[in-house]
Design a protein that fits this description.
303 residues, alpha/beta, Rossmann fold, 41% helix, globular
């Protein structure tokens, strides 16, 4: 995996971040930041990152609290695990690597970090691709019974410490495998060693705690930040590509079922395109060729 990429450990904004970096480096070379989601690590980009690295400088971090990155202490407001805090980590890393501007590709929680990054640092993000989500504030705004039944983990993981941590910790392999089976269309996507890597990372009690803090922040501070932007009419300045899995067992991105993901993203940006792909939730692993077919022209590969 990640042939030709260097593995590094760098200081974010209050967390130590594990990452891989690859591709040409130098003046005029465009950079892409690729951010994974729950319950995974940067390994999700093993198919797409090498392709992008032929033309771009590619940076694939483990978010704070995930993989081999550090798991900072939290506070009563869950601020250290807000998407704003995570965005500050990766903005600092990109700057330290010499990239003041860059495109962002995010999946799941990583797309939520990418969304917040593009809102908070509009002069840094040139383009943003979201894989299988709509913004956090829009999810909570449209939450209903059907959504809760299909996305109960949002509520479960956000319960006070140590309730979800204790239950998941009894059998972390079962929990992780069940999530992947429930959200994917085909578990064969993880048969190349990725599943073993995700299990290894997820067995760490500190990672389990940090993941829960991520969802606690999602139910509180992240929601509040998104709603404040919506109320103020703030929008993303960069072009947005929104893709989602059309064959996901638990349904598509978290809307109320009455509007499409593109409709929701249209509330956040004026320049939005995208659509469903023939796969489950894990687009970059289940359908990397289909993602590449949309992502490459969006990022100007081959233009």
């Amino acid at each position: 995996m990640f042939e030709g990429f260097a593995q590094k450990r760098m200081s974010g904004d209050g967390a130590e971040i594990n990452l891989r970096v690859g591709g040409p480096d130098g003046k005029g070379i465009p950079a892409v930041l690729m951010i994974h989601g729950y319950p995974q690590t940067h390994i999700i980009w093993r198919h797409l990152a090498p392709k992008l690295a032929k033309t771009h400088r590619v940076v694939c971090p483990d978010l704070r609290g995930y993989g081999d990155s550090s798991c900072p202490a939290t506070d009563d407001l869950h601020t250290p695990y807000s998407k704003r805090a995570m965005a500050r980590d990766v903005v600092k890393i990109m700057a330290d690597l010499g990239h003041e501007t860059f495109a962002v590709v995010g999946h799941d929680r990583g797309a939520r970090v990418g969304h917040r990054l593009a809102m908070d640092f509009p002069d840094r993000v040139t383009r943003f691709c979201s894989l299988d989500v709509v913004p956090t504030g829009s999810v909570w705004q449209r939450a209903n019974k059907n959504w809760a039944m299909g996305s109960f983990h949002w509520l479960f993981l956000a319960q006070p410490h140590p309730r979800p941590e204790t239950l998941i910790g009894q059998d972390p392999d079962f929990w992780l495998t069940w999530l992947l089976e429930s959200w994917s269309a085909d578990m064969a996507a993880f048969a190349d060693g990725a599943l073993d890597e995700y299990k290894r990372a997820h067995r760490n009690p500190d990672v389990i705690r940090a993941n829960c803090e991520d969802y606690r922040a999602g139910a509180t501070i992240d929601d509040a930040l998104d709603r404040a932007d919506l109320d103020a009419g703030n929008k993303l300045r960069c072009p947005v590509l929104a893709l989602w899995g059309g064959a996901r067992k638990a349904g598509g991105p978290k809307t109320d079922g009455k509007v499409s993901a593109l409709d929701v993203w249209g509330e956040w940006a004026d320049d939005v395109r995208g659509g469903p792909l023939p796969c489950g939730h894990f687009l970059a692993e289940e359908a990397p060729d289909a993602v590449w077919g949309e992502l490459a022209p969006f990022l100007g590969v081959g233009a």
